[in-house]
Amino acid sequence: MATYQYPVYPYHPPAFADGLAPTAQVVIVGGGQVGLTMALDLAQRGVASVVLDEDNTVSDGSRAICQAKRTLEIWDRLGVAAPMMAKGVTWNEGHVFYRGERLYAFNMQENPHSKFPAFINIQQYYVEQFLVEQAMQQPLIELRWCHRVTGLETAPAGVCLTVETPDGIYTQPCDWLVAADGVRSTIRRQMGLSFSGQVFEDHFLIADIIMQREGPAIRRFYFDPPWGPEASALMHRQSDNVWRLDFQLGWNVDRDEELRDENVFARIRRMIGPDTPFELEWKSLYTFQCRSIERYRHDRVLFIGDAAHQVSPFGARGGNGGVQDADNLGWKLALVVQGRAGQALLDSYDDERRFAAAENILNSTRATDFITPKTPVSEVYRNAVLDLARDFPFARTLVNSGRLSVPAHLTESSLNGADELRGSVRPGSPVPALPLSVPDNAAVSHLTDILGDGFTLLCFGPANAELHVDSPLGLRLLHAGQDFRDSDGSIAAAFGVRDNAVVLVRPDQHVMACWRTPDPATILGALAKIRGEC
Amino acid sequence: MSSLKHEPCISDPDGFYQELIDAVQRLSPDDALAFSARLNLLLANHIGDRTVLREAIEAARKGLENRK
Ligand SMILES: Cc1cc2nc3c(=O)[nH]c(=O)nc-3n(C[C@H](O)[C@H](O)[C@H](O)COP(=O)(O)OP(=O)(O)OC[C@H]3O[C@@H](n4cnc5c(N)ncnc54)[C@H](O)[C@@H]3O)c2cc1C
User: Under CATH, which number does the domain A199-289 receive?
Assistant: First the structure.
């Protein structure tokens, strides 16, 4: 490709006596954006992992481009947000067009003082490259490139993998297996798990082009564009002057014909006009699906990312959902591996992330149904919405060009405790990266910076000033006014703090419980759910 | 929570009905369908109440069969 040189990561032939590798505590199959995030999270918590990937480079083509705020917050906690921000193109706004007219614009950034924008656009190969570079710095992560998993045997005490390399096959036993091997997951197939859902009868041609073009980075979605026969089209700016164009072609198309350069070029020309010079960087033809396996935990095998669930891309919920899977599983698996919590904690991963995946699938399905109406009648309604949207603001809320990825609020989680404050951030919600200041520490600017990755109690008000509590899980107490200053009051407002409040935050920076004036026993009671029987 | 009104609410039923039919009767079937869809959406938004809308959708759907 013109703008990107694919890295080649070192392959090491297996050198295990009798073809049997020593037992690993955790093996992660798949070094994509989700598996690598998982490895970094575990390493940060002191847990070693072996990452097996069948390839020795990064994503083929740009694929996922939109990385959401929550993903950036998670990568920030793992120390890898900075290169993403430096390379990515920041955007907050989406514009929706219908037959050449702009219907409306929406802004995804709900708080202008947040640490991160609503989205950055960055090609998936950069994302994976930065994650790999970070993982290479981590002595607790062993990356094995060109090691393909071809089989597995599960037992109550662990899993045994068959791994194929250019120099032969070996056996890799492990205590815990994280399947992050993507949408065609070998692990999922080998275990015979059904991956069911919905296929959308439509084709989308994706073209990445290099072109010099100024103007703000916004998401542009065109229904029935005036320039061409496409039912819809999408345009997104990425880094390196690469632009993502996405054309909706319909169901009955000749795939080979559509992918011929001259046909792709003609579509691009009609969209960008006759004069702008461009170069084609990557093209691909897709049909989209929304599907999931039934459970994400099967004893010692845990499924994350596309291996567990697949969504159509119109909400950027695939990669972003997967990164949240890793964020959710990391601390739980670490506590279990370290013997500090019982295995039942891992069932909460299954509960919480299945809930989140269902929400992602619902949103992606609805968007795809709007973009690709299933029947002539549903198309009539879709067009009625678009026709009305020009003059009637209410109809714009029905227009669905993709409901873009927002973090899951795990409101139904069995881990959630008291909900005494009733602010907008409640048990199950991720803590927002709101601005604050810390005396004598200019490096800290937002709430997520001081939370770290353990359990934290945020204490507000005079009644909680003397609160002391100790837990074997580790618990940091941070007192408002003393350890941090809620300079503009936005933190107190978000949690609904009036005078006295204590907020218990989990290691993945989701809220677990909100009280007014809890005693230590109450707080320890809430944490007892985490430890279970260990 | 309110529910779908079953009792008459329109003050001039014959006049209203004529207006409605006048608006659609010379339309092609395609345009008539588009008209109905637009009218549904406009009125649905005016009503707003999800319970009422759900009851209306159910009432309108009653007795109609899925086509193969
Ligand atoms: C056109 C397109 C646009 C998209 N846009 C967006 C977007 O804007 N935002 C977004 O969030 N998501 C988007 N997605 C979805 C996103 O790309 C995926 O959700 C994401 O890549 C999932 O990451 P993963 O790590 O789970 O799987 P993958 O990225 O598929 O990684 C799986 C890894 O496992 C390895 N592997 C597979 N099998 C084996 C095996 N047997 N042994 C060893 N290794 C194996 C592979 O080499 C690979 O590295 C888009 C997808 C497409 C196709």
Answer: 3.30.9.10
How many Å apart are CA A423 and CA A416, to the nearest integer?
15
Name the β-bridge partners of A477: A457
Q: Which of A274, A283, A267 is closest to A229 using CA atoms?
A: A267
Fold of A17-87+116-195+290-366: FAD/NAD(P)-binding domain (3.50.50)
Handedness of CA A308, A310, A311, A315 (dihedral sign): positive
- CATH number for A409-534 (one of 3.40.50.970, 3.40.50.720, 3.40.50.10780, 3.40.30.120): it is 3.40.30.120
- pLDDT tens digits, A150-161: 999 999 999 999
What residue numbers bound the domain in which B41 lies? 28-68
Closest CA to A149 of A170, A174, A129, A120: A170
CA of A180 to the centre of ligand 1 (A): 9
| Mean pLDDT across chain A | 96
Instruction: Round to whole Å and give the CA distance between A21 and A96.
Output: 54
Residue A315 to chain B, least CA–CA distance (Å) = 25
Number of other residues whose CB lies within 10 A of the CB of residue A18: 7
What pTM was computed for the model?
0.96
Angle at A493 between CA A512 and CA A449, to 5 degrees: 60
Check if B27 contacts A (Cβ < 8 Å).
no
Please identify which residue in the block is written with the tokens 């069948």.
Answer: A54
pLDDT in tens, A194-213: 999 999 999 999 999 999 99
Best A394, A396, A398, A399 member to test B by mutation, with max B CBs in 10 Å, is A394
